[in-house]
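Data deposition worksheet. Section B asks for the primary sequence of the deposited chain exactly as it was used as input, without tags or linkers unless they were present during the calculation. Section C holds the resulting structure in token form. Section D is free text for depositor observations; keep each observation to a single sentence. Incomplete worksheets are returned to the depositor.
Section A, Depositor: J.P.
Section B:
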Amino acid sequence: MNDLPQSERTWREAWTARPPVPRGISVPPGRRLLQTVRPYVPRGCLTVARRGFWLLSASLPRKLRTGLHSFAGLMRPDTASVEDAYPAWIQQHDRLDEYRRRQILARIAGFGSPPLISVIMPVFNPDPAHLSAAIQSVEQQLYPHWQLCIADDASTDPAVAATLRQAAARDRRITVLWRERNGHISAASNSALSCATGTFVALLDHDDLLSPRALYEVAVRIVDQPGADIIYSDEDHIDSFGRRSRPYFKPGWNPDLIAGHNLISHLGVYRRALVERIGGFRIGFEGSQDYDLALRAVAETRPDGIVHIPEVLYHWRQDAADRTFSQASHDRCVRNGRRAVQQFVARHSAGATAMPAPALPIFTRVVYPVPAAAPIVSILVAADDDANAVERCLAVLAERTDYPNLEVLVHGRRVASVRGDMKRANAAAQAANGSLLLLLDSAIEATDSGWLREMVSHALRPEIGAVGAKLINPDGTVRHAGITVSGSGIAHYQFPGRLRSDPGYFGHLQLVRNVTAVSGACLMVRRETFLHAGGLEDDSPLAPFSDVDLCLKLIERGYRNVWTPYAELAWHHRPESSVTEPDRMHRAAVAMRRRWGHRLDTDAYWNPNLSTDRARLSLVSRRNPERSEVLKPRSALAPASY
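Section C:
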């Protein structure tokens, strides 16, 4: 089970107060109505209304359900656009025909030593029909080398016992352990684990479903990547009518994002020896026991031992949890999950504090410490032809920065690029006194005083290369939330045009995340690291992509780059998307491909099923890698650009 049922995550996202929406931005009519009446409605009534709304809408056809959620403002734009494209994606990419089945069976037959995968299932009073379906989803696996380890936690429903006995009788690969007393999910999971003999264990809730090829896809990774310790996949939700929805197409391994929410979740598969070494599931973390397990397992393995499968292999039943989780249970799940995060980050960063994410309190924000003797930050301001802009930038820095130890160096005249003069920026970095450098566009100003301290707290972490901030357009929409280097073109801003208060796709606009690159308009890096990487490209043809190039050089040297929404800055006028001549940009793109071609094909922090389209997040079909078709109305397509 995850840290919270999806229904509660959605309720909290939808009904928690957010920062005011800027002028000129449309607000869904349902949300306007909610904002008007909410102060007059008792909290308990809202809880009942939330449950009723989601139970009612779950029985509606997909288009009507999506429309109702969009009207109410409860389904965010990116979630809604992916939801709209999901049925077509399933038809094109997630259907097993006979030819594909034969391919899979032939590949399995070629395994020299097929790994045994133990599926762990704790059981307590589920709907017998849902339990039976969960067991059958294991029995129907194309990969035959599995065992199902079930621990019944003293269920009181006789139909549950009957279902389990029937399953064990018909398949010798199914083992049922009967607990005499109810010990809750952690104890029951440990009991199921005690029956496991496989090299790897996969976690399955008693009412969820596995895709028929789930264990096959896992086995392929185990065979192809023998150093793997943790394997996780994408997931979606399924209702009692078999309708699939709300797919979470996850990024590749993202160490900072998992501190915000349970990235591994479903389907989570672990090397059994690793799980046993860390002590299995911990009593006292019920409701977030799998999150706690994931964090402790992650801490005991290497980054290259964590493997992501960009396939939807797990179907999380969305309408069963509503009947079994009370509001108190939800709060307990959140507390236990945050306690697990606190222990996770404290192992590597003394003084780090886990707290509720401001815009999404069911998720977590980690605040890293800054020494009392704060290091000097050298702010390298890229000047342009407008002296007033530089003066305004300096005045705002003085007014809206509570960081105590900084210096400002103004450099260069803007060249035919959206960046400043790279040669002068490098010279300024050489002359800087600070151990930390901040590249800053003079047209950008902070929106609150804590932005610089937030960036410093990440830049001081030894594993971090570049740190990027949340950059906002004058109309209150997002301009920069990290840079992706996959898809058409060279680089793409993530989630542009969304409201600054928007949670983003599964919270990605409100959570600290690792990204491949961040914008040079506001980029912090340790001075020593910057110089060791060679600084910014200046005379090279790829200078227009100098910030992306710098971030890739940092990754190549073993660092990871991070984007934080808690350092927010805004342009005081709308910047042009590009002022660089097309011929120069073409030469820059060719130079980037020549240098980084192996890294520009895919982005480790962006799911290959998601488009990099600027206007609207959607899905792509990956059946033909030479031509990935965007699954959305053609009228909605907009050219991706950097």
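Section D:
The first helix runs from residue 6 to 15.
The longest strand covers residues 306-317.
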